[in-house]
């Protein structure tokens, strides 16, 4: 039997390495952005086509490369970052393994142009699938431009597993944000389909965060700072009241590198314990500076996993620093001199119509007339099915009472038919016993069926805002809301684009106050992030469920008798009045026979 162990060809070895280094367009973009940062660039552009599937290009104004260095950069384990094993103990650069460019070139068609400032011409190299195509002198700007075309063109199985462009651009934006957040002194631009998505000028950290996340974050962030011999901590944490339903806005950086560390994440969440709800997650952007020799970053090719030499002490310092910041800044108002307030208003888009302000006057308004709180209407409809009809038959005592009649004389007996308990539950008597209705769960069912009906027949009943409200979103939320403009319209929200990451809300569902609009839309987008596949590809009517959860009347809301009756009528007209859209109960029926047994009464 002959020898069977053989050395793999270089191209095959590169493809194997690419499996760990490059999983999707976002992975390639990350490696190229980090190379640009390590090259000392002060201006970096990331250009995409088809969310990076067709084109990924990173252009920087860094130090550039000589003709030989440009050629060597495509060799495996060729790097300018380290020279010996001892250098691994003092790593300050983002890259050091010398694998990224060789791996990317093995599964795509790459063109590299680079020029140093002290040279008259630069170098242009083309490599397709690890095969060297050409190297020529070229006229180009100082710095480096790397163009990656047709990612995974020679690995069809990997290409077929890529997600939709919407999801892939979201992954790219996340990697872009991670690099941009740790280098606020560098200006960044992100383009997709020849359209600029993110533009970040050179700034300080607070301005970078507000530019990326939206102007609302100017008032949501608390600074954190702690110096010690072991670790220096800086950054920002979110105020407890703005905790999110997802972990999206949680960032750790160690020595200028984004990292994932569940142990330190626990230190943060422990500090927020009892300050936020159990199903909520705090926002944080925390930067750690430690002695490079006390950490190990050479664990995984992605370099996001790090081992700390004294993790327990760092845990304690971090936990104490966060508690101190929360206590300090919750007690003292702060003046923010870092953020430029004039940047909070987005510029008008080109050719946007300018409408003069108008004033609406109510000629019947009487300032001396006693004002009453507007009543909520739940707009009940004809029973939606056999199941709903069966439930409505149980409510014989309420059948003849119309919500509009509740305030009229002569209905004193009916006024005692419904009792609100703890501003959470509605208790009333029906033919067979006593029913307890969860007002929030009931309203979720009502709204869900209303939105489903609107999806079929078109939106109605939306209230037009006297002054349309402008909301500022983070870049990834801005991308998401663009895909939801039509579904939101069906739900009563008319939203239009208004410049960079800004949107104008023209109409809202009835009962929504102006102050609730931005938090409500952010909550809807937050719920979208909990879904893996996005609204377009997920289960039918999921947006209606999300809208119903966010718009339903909350526990703690005092309802008038008219409102309570209207809600019950609307619930009993639903197709499944006893269940929420998520399958949870909306009511509990205690029959008189069962009640009698509890007291051991007999006839």
Keywords:
eight-stranded mixed beta sheet; 19 helices; 603 residues; five-stranded mixed beta sheet; alpha+beta; 32% helix
Q: pLDDT under 50 segments (min length 5)? A: 399-416, 532-539
Task: Tell me the strand percentage band.
Answer: 15-25%
Cα-to-Cα separation, first versus last residue? 95 Å
Radius of gyration, rounded? 30 Å
Structural classification: alpha+beta
Task: Please tell me what the overall shape is.
Answer: elongated
Roughly how much helix do the residues carry, as a percent range? 25-40%
Outline the biggest β-sheet.
Answer: 8 strands, mixed
Number of strands: 22
Strands in their spatial order, largest beta sheet: 5-4-3-6-2-1-7-8
Q: Please, how many helices?
A: 19
Overall average residue pLDDT: 80
Report what the structure shows.
The chain is α+β, with helices and mostly antiparallel strands and 603 residues long. It is 32% helix and 21% strand. The strands form five sheets. Strands 5-4-3-6-2-1-7-8 form an eight-stranded mixed sheet. It has a five-stranded mixed sheet with strand order 9-10-13-11-12. Strand 7 (187-192) and strand 8 (195-200) form a beta hairpin. Helix 6 (165-182) runs antiparallel to helix 13 and helix 12 crosses helix 18 (561-572). The longest helix is centred in the middle third of the chain and has 21 residues, at 311-331. Residues 399-416 and 532-539 have low confidence and may be disordered.
């Amino acid at each position: 039997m002959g020898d069977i162990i053989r050395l793999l060809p270089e191209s095959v070895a590169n493809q194997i390495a690419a499996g760990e280094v490059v999983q999707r367009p976002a992975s390639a973009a990350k490696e190229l952005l980090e190379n640009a940062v390590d090259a000392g660039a002060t201006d970096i552009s990331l250009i995409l086509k088809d969310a990076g599937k067709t084109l990924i290009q990173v252009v920087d104004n860094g130090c550039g490369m000589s003709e030989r260095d440009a050629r060597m950069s495509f060799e495996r384990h060729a790097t300018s970052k380290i020279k010996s094993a001892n250098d691994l103990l003092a790593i300050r650069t983002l890259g050091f393994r010398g694998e990224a460019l060789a791996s990317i070139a093995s599964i795509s068609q790459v063109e590299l142009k680079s020029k140093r400032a002290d040279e008259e011409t630069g170098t242009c190299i083309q490599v397709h699938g690890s095969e060297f195509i050409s190297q020529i002198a070229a006229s180009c700007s100082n710095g480096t431009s790397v163009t990656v075309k047709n990612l995974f063109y020679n690995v069809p199985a990997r290409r077929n597993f890529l997600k939709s462009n919407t999801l892939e651009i979201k992954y790219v934006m996340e990697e872009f944000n991670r690099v941009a957040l740790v280098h606020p002194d560098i200006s960044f631009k992100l383009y997709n389909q020849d359209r600029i998505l993110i533009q970040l000028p050179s700034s300080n950290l607070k301005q970078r965060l507000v530019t990326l996340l939206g102007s609302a974050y100017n008032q949501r962030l608390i600074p954190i700072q702690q110096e010690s011999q072991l670790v220096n901590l800086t950054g920002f944490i979110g105020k407890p009241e703005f905790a999110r339903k997802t972990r999206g806005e949680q960032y750790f950086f160690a020595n200028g590198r984004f990292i994932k560390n569940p142990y330190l994440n626990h230190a943060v969440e422990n500090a927020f314990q009892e300050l936020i709800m159990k199903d909520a997650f705090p926002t944080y952007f925390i930067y750690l500076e430690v002695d490079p020799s006390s950490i190990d970053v050479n664990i995984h090719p992605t370099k996001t996993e790090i081992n700390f030499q004294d993790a327990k002490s760092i845990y304690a310092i971090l936990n104490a620093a966060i508690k101190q910041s929360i206590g300090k800044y919750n007690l003292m108002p702060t003046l923010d001199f870092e953020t430029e307030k004039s940047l909070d208003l987005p510029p008008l888009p080109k050719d946007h119509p300018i409408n003069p302000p108008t004033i609406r006057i109510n000629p019947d308004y009487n300032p001396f007339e006693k004002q009453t709180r507007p009543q909520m209407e739940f707009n009940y409809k004809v029973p939606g099915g056999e199941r709903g009809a069966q439930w409505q038959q149980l409510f014989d005592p309420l059948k003849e009472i119309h919500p509009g009649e509740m305030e009229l004389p002569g209905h004193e007996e009916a006024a005692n038919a419904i009792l609100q308990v703890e501003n959470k539950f509605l208790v009333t008597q029906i033919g067979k016993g006593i029913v307890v209705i969860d007002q929030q769960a009931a309203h979720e069912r009502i709204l869900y069926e209303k939105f489903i009906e609107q999806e079929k027949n078109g939106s109605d009943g939306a209230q037009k805002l006297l002054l349309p409200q402008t909301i500022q979103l983070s870049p990834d939320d801005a991308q998401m809301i663009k895909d939801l403009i039509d579904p939101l319209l069906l739900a009563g929200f008319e939203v239009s684009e208004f410049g960079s990451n800004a949107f104008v809300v023209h109409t809202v569902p009835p009962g929504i106050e102006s102050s609730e609009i931005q938090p409500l839309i952010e909550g809807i987008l937050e719920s979208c992030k909990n879904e893996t596949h996005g609204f377009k590809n997920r289960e039918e009517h999921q947006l209606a469920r999300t809208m119903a959860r966010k718009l339903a009347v909350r526990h703690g809301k005092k309802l008038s008798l008219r409102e309570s009756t209207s809600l019950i009528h609307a619930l009993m007209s639903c197709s499944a009045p006893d269940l929420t859209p998520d399958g949870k109960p909306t009511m509990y029926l205690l029959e008189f026979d069962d009640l009698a047994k509890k007291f051991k009464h007999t006839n």
